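pasting input
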Amino acid sequence: MKGVRHFPGFLAITLVCLIVLYAPLLVVTVYSFNGSTSITQWGGFSWRWYIDVFTGPEAPRFGLAARNSLTIAVLAATAATIIATAASLAMVRGGKFRGRNASFALINLPLMVPEIVTAVAMLIFFTMIGIKTGYGTILIAHIAFCIPFAYLPIAARLQGIEPFYEEAARDLYASRARAFAHVLLPLMAPGVISGWLLAFIISLDDFIITNFVKGAGMETLPTAIFGSVKQGIKPNIMAISTLMLLASASLVTLSWLINRKGQRSP
Amino acid sequence: MANAIEIIEVIKRFGATTALESLSLSISDNEFFTLLGPSGCGKTTLLRMIAGFEAVSAGEIRLFGQNIANLPPDRRPVNTVFQHYALFPHMSVLDNVGFGLKMKGVDLAKRRARAGQMLEIVHLSAFADRLPAQLSGGQQQRVALARALAPEPRVLLLDEPLSALDLKLRQTMRFELKQLQKDTGITFIFVTHDQEEALTMSDRIAVMSAGRLQQVGTAREIYEAPNNRFVADFIGETNILQVEAQPISQDLTRVTLPGGSTLDLPAPPTASGQHSLSIRPERLSLDPQGSLTARLEHVVYLGTDLHLMARLADGSPLVIRMQNSARTALPNEGEEIRISIEEGAARLLAD
């Protein structure tokens, strides 16, 4: 069979795709090092916008937003991972129970529902039950939509673990809980870690839902960036975006590496 | 002798299908006992019920007199050697072997000493700090054995533990397993579909098929005196002939062989009419005065042995096994041969 490279137009289509996907990121990254205040004209290499991010007039606002984003992402990812681990144990190891297919659909539904619908629904829900929007509502919303993202790698990992390891542990006098703690959890760890990292990034990066449920005066990094851009794009936004890109890319890479390492040893 | 395991009218159902039908069995203390049968016969299910991984649908499983059928696996003093070893991949060999003791609450110094001692028994002391993935299949097998024996179980269960090893290693391991069983004095319950494994190691063998016990006995008993057609066919090779049986006294039955000659066998007087007669190929010999006449179809050369494939007058095939010797004068293929049956070699079977 001929390789895919031999299809007519392969190179052209590939280039178009790559440019559409990555040229904007490249432009943002390059212009974050721009020495001038213009966002279109190159004024020589400089760190000034990075320094501006941390010390400039908008630094306190971005600093607070970044802190909110990070603490919410850590808490939401952790809660979502715990729930997703429990869910995957039930789904993969729980045998056939009534409502298993329905449960699977419910766990993964947030991936299919348009985000704007979830956002509106959450806002209405919080208003109806009378919770004041703010840090807490963002956290609850983030936990909810992070669950399926944490669930997928954890369940995939668990499916790859033969049930005889737990049986061996039970056979060697481990209670259910200890068999889980000493044998199953260490074997699941690569999936759990990569589920956590995925949930963390998804939370860190979320804008639409956060924007709806954040309430007045509460900002996360994405909403703060959006607020700032509304008054015109300044080069410091490019520096923040580049920093976030770097953080996301490193975490995704880390998650991928951990998963690959886990796959090699059973 | 005390019974290590008593299985009393145990039934196992999976949904609508019955995997085991009211099975009763006693296994003595210090016995090397084998459950033998083709895949799907229920032998592994029975083993898993003794271990506690499968619940019994009805009946009792007694371990030294105590009913354990409703205890979880971690509360049963029996350990298992799994078919795929199931060594914990994230723990060193030493930690694997010490795991059972750790769960039992034995302190670190004691369990390290005991695990070290077990590794010595299986000749793997040098590998204590390795991970299971760094060992060969045979070495992993020994670690699995050491791990299961370290907590000093009252009964050791082995689920086809040799099936993943190559032939040479399998033969060595058979010997070592048997020796280990004698040295430790622990009752071994061994599951296999390999009759040679069963015959060479076991004190007693239970032959199973379709969720039922077919016969329980020593290797010699089930080989020489199979009590039904399945056992005769499954254990070793055999010739099955259709014969006409007629009781002639309280414990003697006369059977009419294909070709018309007769043979008197010790058999209960219930045997009358059409029956299957089993004769092992090595109990037949070429003999000009023999009672059976057959046509030699071809000769299969097996090195130490020769198999003569013949056909009787009624069309049923007959295999004769003889030792290969330079002095053996062989008839030509296509020739008529006469065959004699060794005294006591023929056995009437229940179908």
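fyi Chain B touches chain A at residues 51-53, 72-74, 78-80, 82, 84, 86-90, 99-100, 103-104, 131, 133, 147-148, 151 (CB under 8 Å).
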